[in-house]
Amino acid sequence: LVFRPIEGGCPWAWAKKCEWNAYEFQSIKIFDVPDIVEILMNNERSVIVNVEKRGAIAKDQLQVCVPPLHWYHDWARLILFFELWRKHEATFIIYANSMSENTAKVLKFYAKQGMVQVVNWPLLPLSKDGEDPNSGIYRLSHSLAHNDCVLRMNAEYGVLLDVDEYIHLSHNRSLLEFVEQRFEKEKDLGSLLFHHYGLKV
Question: Where is the signal peptide (predicted)?
Answer without folding.
Answer: none
